[in-house]
Records
---
Amino acid sequence: MKFERISNRFLKVGRHPFKMGSKDKEDNDTRVCFCCQTNSALYSQLWPIIFLFSALTDFPMPLPEGKRPGQHRDWGWLPVLIVSCFVAYIYYGYLDRIILVLLRQPSISKTWPIVSIVLFNLFFILFIISYARMVMTEPGYATQMWKQDRPLNILDMALDEIQQNQLKPDSVLNETKWCSICQLWKPDRAHHCKVCNACVLRMDQVNGCIGVRNHRYYLQFLMYVTLFATLTFVTSLAMFVQYHGLSLFDRLALSIIILSGIIVIVVGPFTGSHIWLILINRTTIENSQFQHWNKIRQKNQSAEMKPAGFTEAGNNVFYQNCNRNWIEVMSDNKWLWFLPFSSKSEVMRLDGVHYGYNQNTLKAYLNQVSFK
């Protein structure tokens, strides 16, 4: 619990990690695009660019008027293309304009360039695989579970009748919620995603549709991006300084140093914050909701309904301990912590309904719910 209390003070997902300790000027949940309104014609015309910004930064952007939820996913290929171009540029520039230049110099030792090539390609391959698995793997969706065969006349049925004929998923919180859009009972920790237009199991990201089945690939993607960029930046900068800079290398090599350094600064802290979230067993959405509620509570204001799974004291029902929290997302197979692959046991374990929990916290939570 001490580890979780520390996170409540310093971890504010939705802000840049360098500003975690600074004082909020506004609630994260109320942030909107400051330059356009959702009913603006200009906003609609610029939507592909705005969506690219939203997808790459995970900053919540409102839908333009007339757009259906999930319709803008047609532009989902654009972020993939941008990321691929950046990676191809760094890969070519590092190997051709830095490493091969050093290997052609007879007076320079070949040991360090060769070691750099091996590590560089290892991180590159793992980065590409984890990125592909993250993009191509469905996050896991909640489905309708009927007590009998699915009725043929479901469109003619009343809402109460539809609810009564569906089975409720198991819930340790005893508060299964109904999704009016998907017309189904949502399991614990599931949220409706306007991008996917579906209820995502243990939904983590608003725009990227990260859920229970691809959360591990998402973290591995962040880790290998950070390692890939860090190795590129550190080794390139060291070689650039040691071997007289532009007298041996060209401006493309210098741009590789700058670009990889920017990636380290931006993605590195973001990766650290997501590792922390896994260790305290919160998704980005759960943490954002908790921080918003906790901030109002600390101001001694009448706080709105507290997030599901959190007690009045701010304890998380699903927080077990750091080790169990990590295993729940990253697998009990230590090889899978680093390798972006799956196993049959892993697929069976991730049902998106049953999660580990702290018995004492759950007891306190249920007592508070029953008291109200």
---
Amino acid sequence: MKCYRLLGVNEQSDQNTVRQAYLTLVKKLHPDSGHPEASAERFQEVDSAFRILQEKFAKARRGIVEDLREEVKVYDIKHTAPQHRQYLSFDGIGYGTPAQRQKQYQTVRAAKAQERVLEHRLSKAQATETAVMKKGDYFKKHEIKTKYGYDRVVEDLIQEAISRGDFSNLSGFGKPLPDHQSQNPYVDFTTHKMNKIMLDNGFTPEWITLHKDIRQAVDALKEDLRRLRAKLGPLPLSVREEQQWEKWLEQQQEEATKINKMIDKFNLIVPMMNKQMVQLSLERVGNELSVLL
């Protein structure tokens, strides 16, 4: 081999021998060595040969075996890349771009499937010596057909299943389809499922019961204020009546604060923004009652 010959070693030499030979040669051949045999061209040849052999030894350590002899090109099918290899796909059916060929291949497959289904049905429909045939049974099952491809096959299979009664005892038969769009987009999925499970088991979500409690508490507070306001008579109120009315409002302030805390909690857990409530104001409620009386 040329690389071994340039380094002056035989082909059975190991990596250490090759390295020592390379170092000996480069000391003499390097252009700056001042040796009589110094040559830049020979130095490049020796350096290239050493690099090739180093790569060979590295591949040998990794278990990669290669032949460094000059390859002789043999122009046969073994060494020539097969042309038009893309036509080996889709069973060689069709022409044009890959997308067009795929569509043509699917059409051919559908036609073959239809032929096989037809042959299978004809073999099943053939009467044997012991078979009892009723007039019109076969054509009654196959009277509804479409014209092309998968639609025809699917429609025929559906009609056969209907005639056998496969669709008679389906769950949800005669009932409306479940509404999968009923979930509020502003509520996370976990909260929605928890509310649904609670409703299915007869429980009421917390925000609904809390809303009811708030309404009852507000109505009770308004009823108490209405009863107290009725004792004072119509507007305008005297100074003494104004003072009495302010005193009664202060007495109800604790109840109003309790209701407002319930409203704050309700606004945090209610799933819809438009269901949130405004805090109760005793002054506003008192003014409304004064106008009504």
